[in-house]
């Protein structure tokens, strides 16, 4: 059997059986942004890991090494944010081809440390090894949360408001600029969003402490894919209003300039690292206020419905189904 | 600057500065088999990770996929054993070339699960991604220990007895058989020790609960290298009696048959995954009895001395210095 026939999520489903031999210490295993394990009576441990492979996730010609370091930590911080937790300790494994300069490695670690410093994370250990060809970085992150504040993908309920904590699409445009070597006024800002994402930990903590949201995820696979994860896990569907998807003026100008489908870029590429949540209508205004008074964003983009699948309501009122899928590593 | 001039341990020393931004939650960061972090009042969290890269750490033609899965978990379990702790939760990251068959992956995960099951470890999460060429597996393991039982590399004191919990060398011979395609009566047993090591968690727990040992490490880089780590970190040296290094009859027969330097194979290759500890003379007999009455091994191989470096006393009474180094990934 071929992996691409199974797909990334089919493969994960195949791994899942019999992974928990001591289920009493695990609140949630495989299947969310983090796993959630029991630690002290009122706190839980959040665990997450991300593997970045040169030639797949990054190209050293396209990303400065310090930003690669920052991003390798940031993507894990974003997973902790998506559960409503605090990040604590990081382990960094690195496999290094013998052509890599020590100065490049220094810059990678400087980037990791700067991101870790900004979010109070210790780099407590790791593994260093050789690689035959590609640079490989794995970060495992341990976080903490109050059990009653943890937000899962699986909690969305019919009639919930679907919201984002920031605009989407800039990262997709930035990637496009890098891959196509395009020149564009303001391209640096788009590229920067792709290379140096800010994990929405502050937003995640505000949403968690408000205790109003029903579900949360970070937008890494793309809005459609990640909303698809929430809906599939919650047994619901969603309707998103195309006009309400938050994007920047720069992003829209870029798409217009190069004739790109802005909605596709904003929904199906990913690496936005904003948070996507669902909250009941009667708590939405309070949550919005809490986020906005802290200088954070709250963008209503749609609503949870009973009917499975994700539908997009266009500006003219017409509705179409969109594929609830984003990035699939084995497709 | 080239990485090979710096070496693996020089590179790790270069990473270490400014890694702890919240030192109050960390008892030990980079530099031992696990990092040790504060969790509940009487328990500490142990964190460890190991990155296995195809073409460097394993060749799929040489190791059956289920044993690769077992070993990827076992090497991390061995790190938990070396601190005197209990393993709890594992995260598995995997980067997969598109030529890999799903059946191979199923076997890898079956092996991981079988090893995890034997030692009560949950596989709670991970990451799955594509790889341009080589299979890459990273395992991060979370364990637990009682703070007062944790054993570090840095605790060895002058006059301590140096001991091992099992024979060394079989794994090196097994690797040699695989690399040289050698045929030898009993080769399966040697190859098996290399491919399917048993983490000495039981031994680690007995040594920890006895509270007599001063230091501990697992033998992964080779007896000389790992004893070298203990001595360097403890600011001491060691004298090892060559005749007391425990090896199997099969190992000695193999070395004799192919004219190999048995002492070098037993001390400088590694992947033995037995434990090496130091204990004061007046507690050694009690510890030996505790281990042996549980069916575990205790082999005195030498003594900690003030003078730095590692010396080997040969059968004829002569003494020579040996390099306190084993495997170095960037050498």
Structure description:
The first copy, chain A, is of the alpha+beta class and 331 residues long. The first copy, chain A, has two domains: 19-149, 60s Ribosomal Protein L30, Chain: A (2-Layer Sandwich); 153-322, Alpha-Beta Complex (Phosphoribosyl-aminoimidazole Synthetase, Chain A, domain 2), CATH 3.90.650. Chain A is built from ten helices and 13 strands. In chain A, the strands form two sheets. The first copy, chain A, has a seven-stranded mixed sheet with strand order 8-10-7-11-9-12-13, sandwiched between helices. A six-stranded mixed sheet of chain A has the order 1-2-3-6-4-5, covered by helices on one side. The longest helix of chain A has 19 residues, at 65-83. The radius of gyration of chain A is 20 Å and the shape is globular. The two termini of chain A are 14 Å apart. The model of chain A has no long low-confidence stretch (mean pLDDT 95). At the A-B interface, helix 1, strand 3, strand 4, helix 3 and strand 5 of A face helix 1, strand 3, strand 4, helix 3 and strand 5 of B.
Tell me the total number of β-strands of chain A.
13
CATH class of the largest domain in chain A: Alpha Beta
The CATH H-level homologous superfamily of the largest domain in chain A: PurM-like C-terminal domain
> Helix fraction of chain A?
25-40%
The backbone outline of chain A, from C-alpha atoms, is globular
